[in-house]
Amino acid sequence: MTGSNRRQEILKNIKESDRPVSGSKLAKDYDVSRQVIVQDIALLRALGYDIISTNRGYVLEGQTCAERVFKVRHTDEQLETELCTIVDLGGQVKNVMVNHKVYGHIEAELGITSRRKVKEFLEDIKSGKSTPLKNITSDYHYHTVTADSEETLGMIEDELRKLGFLVEN
Question: 20 in helix, strand or coil?
């Protein structure tokens, strides 16, 4: 099998899978080293395929399998812990939402996918650029979180519960 054919097969494998495909599995399936798979993924990305590396394997951007809305409450000082917990467990924080008694539903896109993005967001807050939306609703707010599986979302939910952030009605 040529490198080009292998890359097309890898792409097909990732597209058709309902869960992330690990580099180790791809290496075994195509009888090449893990490093060859990493290089193939880099070449596919250079061709314009938006392949994301998660802690469980490779997925195509927009192919995230699971999504859940969490109602949470915490202080400003706990904001970093909340966001890092979600991304460290494999989640992506799409947005923040609040339900205000006068203004109704207010939503802002966040797109937080990594600790680096958490840091950038917190720097914007600390610089005075803005304040957390949760502050207008006594710290109650919602996040839409995406992940590679329902299992990952379950782990995130469990950890938010342990931290005392999850609001359960």
Answer: coil
Walking along the chain (169 residues) 10 residues at a time, the average pLDDT comes out as 91 86 95 96 88 86 77 96 96 92 90 91 89 89 90 96 93
For 3-60, the fitting CATH number among 3.40.50.1970, 2.40.160.40, 1.10.10.10, 3.40.120.10 is 1.10.10.10
Binding region = 74, 82, 141, 143
pTM comes to 0.65
Asked whether the beta carbons of 107 and 136 are under 8 A apart, the reply is: no
Longest dimension (CA), the chain: 63
Please state the residue numbers annotated as binding site for Ni(2+): 74, 82, 141, 143
Q: What is the pLDDT of residue 62?
A: 65
Cα separation, 10 vs 22, in Å, equals: 11
- Alpha helix positions (H), the chain: 3-16, 23-29, 34-46, 79-88, 115-126, 150-162
Question: CA-CA distances (angstroms) from residue 38 to 12, 22, 51, 58, 136?
Answer: 16, 11, 11, 10, 45
Tell the CATH topology of 66-162: Histidine-containing Protein; Chain: A; (3.30.1340)
